[in-house]
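ingest -> validate -> predict -> emit
validate: passed (alphabet ok, no gaps, 252 aa)
predict: started
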Amino acid sequence: MNTDPSRLDAIATHWTLIRAAHTSGKPQEVAAARHALVLRYARAVRRYVGGIARNTDDADELAQEVMVRLMNGDFGGADPNRGRFRDLLRTAVRNMVRKHWAKANRRKAADLDPDVLGAADERADAEWDGAWQQNVLDHAWAALKEYERSAPGTRAHTVLKLRTDFPTDTSEQLAERLSAKVSSPIRPDACRQMLRRARVRFATLLIDEIRMGLADPSPDRVTDELAALGLLEHVRDFLPADWSSSGKLTEE
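emit:
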């Protein structure tokens, strides 16, 4: 029986997924785990490489090379004791790009600036942080959409997406849009309650996504990572006074 990559993508931590992708277990499971890695990080890698390569064709080729190497199991040396997952992946991608550049002697030096690959390069770091932020958001939105699909009667994804698209709408206007969207009358007060529940659910999914990439997913570390990625605003309203000890959001 083939292993479902989407199921692997939802397992406890990124590190579990990494181990599954580089063990000597069943070939189908290893292949599925590597496929899940590629699906999860392809966009972030492409954006990061695009910030390094000055030529679009080079960026596409380099990003493809990184994906191929991930599929081939070239990320087996990742260790959660060495730091945050996103930093280790960035280093791995940078090293892969360097190796690729070393082989591609036919390219002109102007097409790719090796100095941009330095760990202290602010532009490259900003590209990676921005790519990772979007990666986290994309997965949280996808998880919220799946939650709505699997829980009949919920409108979490729909109402939060409407609020995102129309941030200045009043409760009455948002309720009208939601009513039209779901073909059912929604009162403004009910819409407000649905929106708050959706925001709590989205905050929870963001935190889950952040925890997956941390070797130490303590509340304080999660808060630091959210702040570093510019995502704290999505959860700030639901962090109780005892968040550091409880690790639980305020739902009401």
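DSSP finds eleven helices and no strands in the chain.
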